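note to self — DONT lose this again. spent like an hour looking for the file last time. sequence + predicted structure for the chain T wanted, 189 res
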Amino acid sequence: MKYNLSKMMSLDIYLSTLTNKEYDKIKHQIIPSNPKKTPLLSWDIYSQHHFKTLKNLKKERDINIVKLFSEKEKWHNDIDSIFENQEFEAIIVTDLKQKILWVNSGFTEMTGYSKKFALNKTPRFLQGENTSSLTKQSIRHKLKHSHPFTQIITNYKKDKSPYKCEVKIIPLYNNNTVTHYLAIERRVI
């Protein structure tokens, strides 16, 4: 099988300009049917699909762990609808006192803190000198009212560098009583 070098390079350049939505529309046309026979020049195409698949599998695994918590704690929340169309890096499950019970590996990637370090602490350990007191007060107020909300907060990584974080907090219910909180987080600019 012969491959046209200029066409393959042009395809790589073209693909790198697409948005995720545009790529999803055409990916079935370019993903190799047999990756073992894929020419080296198309490695970028294959690896882009491969790493996207791995990322999606990690997200699915994380959501399934939250579902296991849900079964154990008998939450009445629809976990699938919580995560539907959500972009996130970190997931945190806390008890009512906001003590961290579980974080995903995305939390470690985003903050630099290990899962073990985060357990039994409150997310307040991520806050620092430029974390707005008004934002912290707003979060406390919203938690008291037990409604889902989204807030942007300045947090700090383990290396002390600040980052803006969009936090979506969802109260988790068992028999109409809030028993836990779920935080879905992502860095924002």
